[in-house]
Amino acid sequence: MTAFTDALATARRPLVMEVKRQDADGRDLTRGRSVAEIVRGYEEAGAPCVSVVTGRWFGGSEDLLAEVAALTRLPLLRKDFLTSRRQLERSRDLGACAVLLTAKVLPAGSLARLTDHALDCGLTPFVEVADAAEAAAVHRGAQCVVAVNNKDIATRERLAGDVDRGAALLPDVLRTGTRFPVSASAIDTPARAAGLLRHGFSALLMGTSLLDAPSLPAWCTAFDAARAE
Ligand SMILES: O=P(O)(O)OC[C@@H](O)[C@@H](O)c1c[nH]c2ccccc12
């Protein structure tokens, strides 16, 4: 267990809440809020962990990760298309405790080497898969968080995403040996989020719909109610 998986395992609301400046179409998601205000809102909502998108597609940067790390003690996931050992070390130095490894962009050998290196650095590999073949390539799954990406990065995540397609991959995700199967991206409503947990995911990663919510506390109340149904 690491700080990241510990926090997920004990969370009252197992939602990795994401700091993302804009969506893939360039639409501003901050609505004028500062990063500090967004992070405070996530802390108040009981986020066990925070994801920070550093990728340029989404208006991110390494500075954003450093800024969030200075604002909170919550375990941080760096979300970006990381491809080298140096980037993993840099992520750790900037304050991340988990790193995204995207099966679609990494040949199986690289995925395995980066998984090993992340674990050697004390980082939790957060491995994202989009189909059964990618799930089969996960290395040391028992020590990874394995997430199904409900959106298609081949289209730069511009399309709506298909949460049901992702949910159908849960058996493949569990076959990796992970104790933390996660559904990531395109989760729109509290009812949908509750349904994915009921389906068997242990946590969810959410950005856009939490950032778009007129009131995060109200969103969380609706989520709690949907889980209790
Ligand atoms: O905003 P959404 O639809 O809840 O999705 C969050 C997250 O999964 C998304 O930001 C993401 C998916 N894959 C990525 C790769 C890099 C950076 C970010 C991402």
From TrEMBL:
GO terms for molecular function: indole-3-glycerol-phosphate synthase activity; phosphoribosylanthranilate isomerase activity. The keyword Protein biosynthesis does not apply. Gene3D superfamilies: Aldolase class I. GO terms for biological process: L-tryptophan biosynthetic process. It catalyses: 1-(2-carboxyphenylamino)-1-deoxy-D-ribulose 5-phosphate + H(+) = (1S,2R)-1-C-(indol-3-yl)glycerol 3-phosphate + CO2 + H2O. Keywords: Amino-acid biosynthesis, Aromatic amino acid biosynthesis, Decarboxylase, Lyase, Tryptophan biosynthesis. Coiled coil: none annotated. It holds the Pfam family IGPS. Pathway: Amino-acid biosynthesis; L-tryptophan biosynthesis; L-tryptophan from chorismate: step 4/5. Its EC number is 4.1.1.48. SUPFAM superfamilies: Ribulose-phoshate binding barrel. The keyword Amino-acid biosynthesis applies. InterPro entries: Aldolase_TIM, Indole-3-glycerol_P_synth, Indole-3-glycerol_P_synth_dom, RibuloseP-bd_barrel. Residues 3-215 form the Indole-3-glycerol phosphate synthase domain. This is indole-3-glycerol-phosphate synthase.
